[in-house]
Design goal:
By secondary structure, this protein is α/β, with parallel strands linked by helices. The chain folds into two domains: 5-16 and 71-197, 3-Layer(aba) Sandwich (Rossmann fold), CATH 3.40.50; 18-65, no CATH class. Helices cover 41% and strands 14% of the residues. The chain has ten helices and six strands. A six-stranded parallel sheet has the order 3-2-1-4-5-6, sandwiched between helices. Helix 9 (173-178) links the parallel strand 5 and strand 6 (186-188). The longest helix is centred in the first third of the chain and has 14 residues, at 32-45. The structure holds magnesium ion.
């Protein structure tokens, strides 16, 4: 495999969403374990995670547009991995199903990457094929030279593979543990393993 570019999902790939979800629950007056349980229902049923609000009998809160990550929410292995790959000359991108506000947050962190994008700005969400076509359009390389790294099999691994990319499953977070990663080309438990796993 001749990888030239590596693109990363955001939630539970680069970012530990624990604090985010707990803060969301706190502001909504929900116990965190209730929110997490509803999220688990959506994973088990193969639904959009936003269906959790329906399970809780709630409208999607407007808070989602204003609640931001904190730099300390980056998984400890995220920055070292981005730095290592960027220093070696690979084209590095961040592209996930995120709000415009979270894309702006990511850009403000001045991470060692070439591209920061989001479903909000592109107007297309994973797992739609057009999302992965946009990634190819951002790179001066073919799909088969791009590794896409994500924690979700349904939104990351399967559509990346269908697009002809090298599909990398990072096994952490709720989806990472609960979804079957058999379809992934590469499986890692942390981003610390990623460069070696990709042979970079
Ligand atoms: Mg994710």
């Amino acid at each position: 495999m001749a990888v030239k570019a590596v693109f990363f999902d955001v939630g539970e790939t680069l970012i530990n969403e624990l604090r985010y979800w707990n803060e969301l629950a706190r502001r909504l007056g929900l116990e965190p374990h209730v929110l997490w349980s509803a999220l688990g229902v959506t994973i088990a049923r193969g639904e959009e995670h936003t269906d959790l609000w329906r399970h809780l009998g709630m409208e999607p809160p407007e808070l989602l547009d204003v609640l931001l990550y904190d730099r300390s929410d980056l998984y400890p292995d995220a920055l070292p991995c981005l730095e290592a790959l960027h220093e070696r000359g690979y084209f590095i991108g961040i592209a996930g199903n995120q709000t415009a506000a979270l894309e702006e947050w990511a850009r403000a962190q001045e991470l060692p990457v070439d591209v920061v994008a989001s479903s909000a700005r592109w107007g297309v969400r994973k797992p739609q094929p057009e999302f992965f076509s946009r990634i190819v359009a951002e790179c001066d390389c073919d799909a088969l030279e791009i590794a896409y790294v994500g924690d979700r099999v349904d939104n990351d691994v399967l559509p990346a593979k269908a697009a002809g990319m090298i599909a990398v499953h990072v096994r952490r977070g709720p989806w990472g543990y609960l979804q079957d990663s058999a379809a992934a080309d590469v499986r890692v438990d942390s981003l610390a393993e990623l460069p070696e796993a990709l042979g970079l």
